[in-house]
């Protein structure tokens, strides 16, 4: 042996005599293992510290961000962790080339190397995912699901290789033997399999992207998608809470994605006012004269009056005549006010229509699209429209329907 330690000499110096030769040999081997491991770790520690400092300096001076991400994920540092097992294995083959337990020891070293290599591969995959996320395409097509699947494959391959190394069988034979446990493995990795399939469907069909606003009442989710991975989709709700949804539920259950609204350059406004049916009537000449003073209605009224007079020629009964109503003129007024509103997208559908009358009056619905989609700005646009409409309704001699109890309370 190249590394020889006289164990009896050291123990006799400590007044601890070892008479059993087998015990002395075992202790000698143990001390030699400790020395070799200590040398390997010290060598790796100083080498890693020096080289990492050099690499860090180079990384900071480069313009590209790729090397910075690899450095932050400690890929280079983890590669140095391969040195101790390789050094120890090489040293033991030289020192204990004919040792009867060298093969078993080598298997432990191989397992050590495989585990460290697994950590290196995982770190590389994390770095690749971070680099990909820095590009705009990552919002539409994230690869986190695929990265996690590769991680599972790598970890599974390492475990199978380590087991096959210790039992002395090839990985292929081990996989054949695992066929009997396929049902159990399917049960164990059920969520992973469902998540992977769902993730592929979500990405392929563009059902959900990072940054989308989704609503899923069954999971109390109403907010922005933060992350899509193999098992879960994280949603930050409007109240800043985080909801975690199993990935496969986004395929099996229904949810609302507001991306279409954001891409359409308009957020829909669809709200109605209940008009008291008893306040609807034909406009008198005095009311027409008052309303035609409005710049908004002047053109409409002056255009309609000649047409109505022509159609009513020869008719003297009010049941036979066609006349302007206060509700009809108010609808035209509301439409023209929408057309002059710069906050609305007039390239999209807009109208003011009557809905089916109910016990609470005639619902007069405003349907249009706001250019401003951000929640606070959108609500302001919507509120400004109805503030004005509610304020001008009395000028048309119309009344808003309210429950009698409310009227009594406010009067």
TrEMBL record:
<dbReference type="GO" id="GO:0008381">
    <property type="term" value="F:mechanosensitive monoatomic ion channel activity"/>
</dbReference>
<feature type="transmembrane region" description="Helical">
    <location>
        <begin position="149"/>
        <end position="168"/>
    </location>
</feature>
<feature type="domain" description="Mechanosensitive ion channel MscS">
    <location>
        <begin position="192"/>
        <end position="259"/>
    </location>
</feature>
<dbReference type="InterPro" id="IPR006685">
    <property type="entry name" value="MscS_channel_2nd"/>
</dbReference>
<dbReference type="InterPro" id="IPR010920">
    <property type="entry name" value="LSM_dom_sf"/>
</dbReference>
<keyword id="KW-0472">Membrane</keyword>
<dbReference type="GO" id="GO:0005886">
    <property type="term" value="C:plasma membrane"/>
</dbReference>
<protein>
    <submittedName>
        <fullName>Mechanosensitive ion channel protein MscS</fullName>
    </submittedName>
</protein>
<dbReference type="InterPro" id="IPR023408">
    <property type="entry name" value="MscS_beta-dom_sf"/>
</dbReference>
<dbReference type="InterPro" id="IPR030192">
    <property type="entry name" value="YbdG"/>
</dbReference>
<dbReference type="GO" id="GO:0071470">
    <property type="term" value="P:cellular response to osmotic stress"/>
</dbReference>
<feature type="transmembrane region" description="Helical">
    <location>
        <begin position="108"/>
        <end position="128"/>
    </location>
</feature>
<feature type="transmembrane region" description="Helical">
    <location>
        <begin position="174"/>
        <end position="200"/>
    </location>
</feature>
<feature type="transmembrane region" description="Helical">
    <location>
        <begin position="29"/>
        <end position="47"/>
    </location>
</feature>
<keyword id="KW-0812">Transmembrane</keyword>
<keyword id="KW-1133">Transmembrane helix</keyword>
<dbReference type="Pfam" id="PF00924">
    <property type="entry name" value="MS_channel_2nd"/>
</dbReference>
């Amino acid at each position: 042996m190249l590394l020889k330690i006289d164990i009896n000499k050291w123990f006799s110096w400590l007044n601890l005599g070892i008479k059993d030769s087998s015990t002395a040999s075992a202790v000698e081997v143990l001390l030699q293992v400790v020395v070799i491991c200590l040398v390997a770790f010290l060598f790796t520690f100083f080498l890693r510290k020096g080289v990492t400092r050099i690499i860090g300096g180079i990384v900071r001076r480069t313009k590209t961000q790729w090397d910075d991400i690899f450095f932050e994920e400690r890929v280079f540092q983890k590669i140095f962790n391969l040195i101790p097992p390789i050094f120890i294995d090489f040293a033991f083959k030289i020192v204990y080339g004919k040792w009867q337990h060298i093969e078993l020891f080598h298997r432990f070293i191989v397992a050590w190397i495989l585990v460290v290599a697994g950590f290196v591969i995982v770190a590389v995959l994390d770095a690749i995912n971070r680099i990909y996320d820095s590009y705009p395409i990552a919002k539409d097509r994230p690869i986190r699901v695929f990265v996690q699947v590769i991680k599972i494959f790598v970890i599974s391959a390492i475990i199978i290789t380590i087991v096959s190394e210790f039992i002395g069988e090839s990985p292929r034979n081990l996989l054949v033997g695992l066929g009997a446990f396929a049902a159990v493995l399917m049960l164990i990795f059920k969520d992973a399999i469902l998540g992977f399939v769902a993730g592929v469907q979500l990405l392929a069909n563009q059902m959900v992207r990072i940054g989308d606003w989704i609503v899923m009442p069954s999971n109390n989710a109403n907010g922005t998608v933060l992350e899509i991975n193999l098992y879960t989709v994280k949603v930050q709700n409007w109240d800043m809470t985080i909801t975690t949804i199993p990935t496969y539920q986004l395929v099996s259950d229904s949810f609302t994605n507001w991306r279409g609204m954001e891409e359409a350059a308009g957020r829909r406004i669809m709200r109605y006012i209940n008009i008291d049916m008893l306040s609807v009537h034909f406009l008198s000449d005095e009311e027409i004269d008052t309303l035609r003073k409005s710049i908004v209605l002047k053109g409409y009224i002056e255009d309609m009056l000649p047409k109505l007079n022509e159609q009513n020629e020869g008719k003297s009964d009010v049941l036979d005549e066609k006349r302007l109503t206060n509700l009809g003129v108010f609808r035209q007024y509301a439409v023209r006010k929408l057309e002059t509103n710069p906050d609305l997208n007039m390239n999209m559908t807009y109208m003011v229509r009557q809905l089916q009358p109910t016990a609470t009056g005639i619902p007069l619905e405003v349907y249009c699209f706001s250019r401003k989609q951000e929640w606070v700005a959108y609500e302001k646009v919507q509120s400004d429209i109805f503030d004005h409409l509610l304020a001008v309704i009395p000028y048309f001699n119309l009344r808003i329907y309210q429950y009698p109890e409310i009227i009594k309370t406010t009067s």
